[in-house]
Write a structure and sequence with these properties.
Blueprint (H helix, E strand, L loop, with lengths): L6 H12 L5 E16 L6 E16 L5 E12 L2 E16 L2 E12 L5 E16 L2 E16 L11 E16 L1
Antiparallel strand pairs: 1-2, 1-8, 2-3, 3-4, 4-5, 5-6, 6-7, 7-8
Length: 177
């Protein structure tokens, strides 16, 4: 039974257990994402709109309880491929009761012909409780250096790897628990 628990869940349990007095805030988001995909083997860049779904778990910290630290997972459609963005560190600072400024860093994996993995980072501005538990988030992020091996069907290059960079901006509705 213990071997069936995913490693990511063990990391989350360890993180939550290491924080004194952790009081969790769960945030589920859904929104519109505009992205620009740049590849070193494609001749033209792709820019489109798509969806973004997210789940984040944060705890309040600090004397004035204005720091939020946690983790999260994003699912984004990129050119009919799924991008999973793991927010290893997701931080928000409450500027006022209804306005937060945040940043995150983590890892990204694009489900391409073979998986492409790289860095995932971004900044955001959120109004967490515009109406009861409903909030609004404006975010700018990037999946950087998503690397994979060159396949025989790819155009000939000098490098054994190919890289993709994805630049995104999104507007999402959030529901906090």
């Amino acid at each position: 039974m213990v071997n069936k628990i995913p490693p990511l869940l063990w990391v989350l349990i360890g993180f939550l257990g290491s924080v004194n007095g952790f009081c969790a805030e769960l945030e589920l988001t859904s929104g519109i994402n505009y992205y620009s995909l740049q590849s070193d083997i494609q001749t033209e860049n792709v820019s489109k709109a798509s969806y973004i779904l997210s789940a984040k778990l944060r705890g309040q910290h600090g004397d004035k309880q204005q720091h939020y630290l946690g983790t999260g997972l994003d699912i984004i459609d990129i050119n009919n491929m799924r991008l999973l963005g793991f927010r290893a560190v997701d931080y928000q600072w409450a500027m006022t009761k209804n306005l937060r400024l945040g940043a995150f860093i983590g890892a990204a994996s694009l489900a391409n012909k073979t998986p492409q993995n790289g860095y995932y980072l971004g900044i955001n501005l959120s109004a967490p409780r515009l109406y009861r538990n409903l909030g609004l988030i404006l975010e700018i992020s990037m999946a950087n250096g998503l690397a994979r091996d060159i396949l025989p069907s790819d155009p000939a290059t000098r490098s054994p790897d190919t890289f993709i960079d994805i630049y995104m901006s999104s507007l999402s509705l959030a529901w906090s628990f």
